[in-house]
Specification:
By secondary structure, the chain is of the alpha+beta class. Helix content is 51%, strand content 23%.
């Protein structure tokens, strides 16, 4: 009994120690390094680290639970007959754990492929839901929508995910014009409106210069498609501010 208690205590101390060290390491890296590459901004990097920390915590807890069960079984039961019977019940066990394993595997892919992280705003087509990711584990992730409703979704059931928090967002503007002078005048007018926005709103615009991405012309009129690049998820806010 004494050895059992000692082993369980060591197991718990080791697990919580790893979680504590992981938390300290994450906070240290976030506070001391602004970016790891030109692509990953500090905010994106911070979200990735927080997600990794959440994954480490869930993995350590899983290992702690499994090792505690093994310690208890080996101290109170003769595990040899159990191990001999694994082949008989292996199929039943694997079938019952299939969904759980699928969730874990999908959770690993979601993180390693950077599909989304804690703090990202995502949209799912199945189930049809959107909101901010507030928690992630190997088994599931949790979304909070604009109404404050919280939904937990198993990793294996999420499909067709749209992440609006990576890179940049775009405001698309259709401009009708009759001459190049009129087009330039319209573009200059939009750029003037951008420069007159409040500073906190303008800070979410990546470039105050309008970018023309497409021209079209027929017998009756000419048109151009222009875009304004904004920080992720700020396009609607800026569109409203520009009254477009």
């Amino acid at each position: 009994m004494r050895n059992l208690i000692i082993n369980l205590v060591i197991d718990l101390i080791s697990g919580f120690g790893i979680i504590f060290i992981s938390q300290l390491t994450t906070e240290y890296i976030i506070n001391n390094y602004k970016k790891i590459s030109p692509i990953h901004t500090h905010t994106r990097y911070k979200r990735r680290l927080n997600t990794l920390n959440s994954f480490v915590r869930s993995i350590v807890i899983l290992i702690m639970v499994i090792s505690s069960i093994v310690i208890i079984l080996t101290n109170f039961f003769n595990v040899t007959p159990i191990l001999e019977g694994v082949g008989i019940f292996g199929f039943i066990i694997s079938f019952s754990l299939q969904n759980l394993l699928n969730n874990y595997i999908n959770g690993i892919f979601i993180f390693t492929e950077d599909i989304f992280s804690i703090g990202d705003y995502i949209k799912l087509s199945n189930p049809q839901i959107e909101g901010i990711v507030i928690n992630m584990t190997l088994r599931s992730f949790t979304i909070k929508n604009n109404l404050g409703e919280i939904t937990t979704i198993p990793n294996s059931t999420a499909s067709l995910i749209t992440n609006t928090s990576i890179g940049f967002s775009v405001i698309s503007i259709k401009i009708q014009f009759n001459s190049d002078e009129e087009l330039n005048s319209r573009i200059k007018d939009i750029e003037t409106r951008i420069s007159n926005l409040p500073e906190d709103v303008r800070a979410n615009i990546l470039s105050e210069k309008i970018e023309i991405i497409e021209y079209s012309e027929d017998q009756s009129n000419k048109s151009a498609t222009a875009i304004i690049k904004t920080k992720p998820s700020h396009q609607n806010e800026i569109r409203l501010a520009l009254k477009m």
